[in-house]
Amino acid sequence: MKTISEKILSAKSGRDARAGDIVVCRVDWVLATDASSPMAIDYFNRMGGERLFDPSRVLLAMDHYSPPTIPRTAGFHDQMRTFARGRGADLHDVGDGISFQILSESGAALPGDLVIGADSHTVTCGALNLFATGVGSSDVAAAMITGRTWLKVPESIKIVLTGTRRPRVSAKDVALALVADIGADGASYQALEFHGPALPGLSLEDRLVICNMAVEMDAKASIFPVDGQTEAYLAGRAKRPFSPIEADASAAYSRDVAIDLSSLTPRIALPHAPDNVVPIERAVGTPIHMVFIGTCTGGRVPDIHEAIAVLEAGGGRIAPGVQLVVTPASREVQLRLLEDGSLRALAAMGAVITTPGCGACCGTSGAIPADGMNVLSTANRNFKARMGNANAAIYLASPAACAAAALTGRITDPR
Amino acid sequence: MSAMDLHGRARVFGDNINTDYIIASTRKRETLDESVLKRYLMEAVDPAFAATVQPGDLLVAGRNFGCGSAMEIAATVILAAGIRAVLARTFARTFYRNAINNGLLPIECDTSAIREGDPLRIAFAGDGMEVTDERTGERAAGRAVPPIMLAILEAGGLVPYIRRHGGIR
Ligand code: SF4
């Protein structure tokens, strides 16, 4: 009787893996970014690495410093190009997007797979019914060489979602509510596994948002089952046939957490912690100087559509003194938004549209807030100095709430 | 394992110290040289801290130390500052793993009674550690380290481990 995590890690280790066991697993996909590759390459060399275990399974993406703003980060990129060229790795240059977003769009990573990435938000891919976890550069280097990693099989928290979301309540609100409920370390060493009658109402993109913020609860992985939404997303993408991994009905969970989506209202995380979550009414009126719609949490097509719907319904005029920054999470997202006119509409409203990737999320590329500025962002982290200035304050909310603030210059209930 | 016993001064922080607080992403963008970055250790929470660190100091924190980004430099900058162990009530899992992989000792134990500047002694016993606060005489048992992690620590980190074993076993 096993959870989804136990089943995947049993298959990858060739053992009967149970929560608490330590297993050595074959990995299907190994990811690194421009923020983690330079150290990974250094570890790789020091470990005596020469070839990659399977170059087509090693994905390197230039996302955090995209495009580079100083010679140093341009140098990181060149180092990655040289490393990948010599070894045949799957290299994604500036503008291709965020590493695990590229993987989740690729149709290469499929249900049942094991993904490790030198980026904590690698957990996002679990929306595709696979086990994905973040590690450091040294673990990624070892996996690049050996195709293996060791993992402690996590216990799982069963998250049961019921009810139907009300209008203008986003997947981001579900994620923030979960972070508030579980806490910043409430899922430490554990996986989240999603169940319940509300799942068919959550698109694959909604699930990516929810899985993304699992790491804000310190979860090791975050996994949805396969259903019609998964199949619809993978139709035309999947590069091979796949079989869903289901939990056994009597699998053991460390605990159950239930969320009724029908009673959920818009949330906001106040500075400077993602679990500092309150209903948005409590923050309404706070002045906002920069609105950031982007990142691996809120930079996909449905997020930007959600923001545009609110902007257009409110007359499409950005409040004076507010900078609206929009960053698509990947090139695929950018292309779709170009094709359907979304980016044109945003540019016409005065938005700043930046290169696909992480953008302003962690202060390494893109717009940096000035001292004293309040930022409302669709991102997942609002630590002090996160966007490159310790004297700015970051609030986190849904794309709808971000758009509503762009119209008024204040935190505004999007309903 | 007694060669790994440690003695040092407690440098105390609170709960949820994330890796961006340990070392800011914007600093790490400028250089990956830990001997430079160590000047900015814990900058966002205590800008004066880095200048007061002495080799041999021990970091002490509350819950969820090292949460947030998985950036490994957070562990190596601490080591570069001459700190060989971090004691915390709990660790974020990526930080815990990164610490072990670089030979920085993460000790999960009750840290609530430890005060800034307390002299601490860390002794290895079996697969665990015992921490003694020499100011109060109080002892705390560190949570056991899984055998594979102990093997990596004993090797001196994941690089020497892989070189020695030619893979992960
Ligand atoms: S968008 Fe932000 S949270 Fe996501 S991978 Fe990039 S820096 Fe990390």
Structural notes for this entry:
The complex is a heterodimer of chains A (about 425) and B (about 170). By secondary structure, chain A is of the alpha/beta class. Chain A has two domains: about 260 residues, Aconitase, domain 3; about 140 residues, Aconitase, domain 3, CATH 3.30.499. In chain A, about 30% of the residues lie in helices and about 20% in strands. Chain A contains 13 helices and 18 strands. In chain A, the strands form five sheets. In chain A, strands 4-3-2-5-6 form a five-stranded parallel β-sheet, sandwiched between helices. In chain A, strands 16-15-14-17-18 form a five-stranded parallel β-sheet, with helices on one face. A four-stranded parallel β-sheet of chain A has the order 10-9-8-11. In chain A, α2 links the parallel β2 and β3. In chain A, α2 packs across α5. The longest helix of chain A is centred in the N-terminal third of the chain and has 17 residues. Chain A is globular. The model of chain A has no long low-confidence stretch (mean pLDDT about 95). With about 170 residues, chain B is of the alpha/beta class. Chain B is built from eight helices and seven strands. In chain B, β2, α5 and β3 form a beta-alpha-beta unit. At the A-B interface, α2, α5 and β7 of A face α2, α6 and α8 of B. Bound molecules: iron/sulfur cluster (SF4).
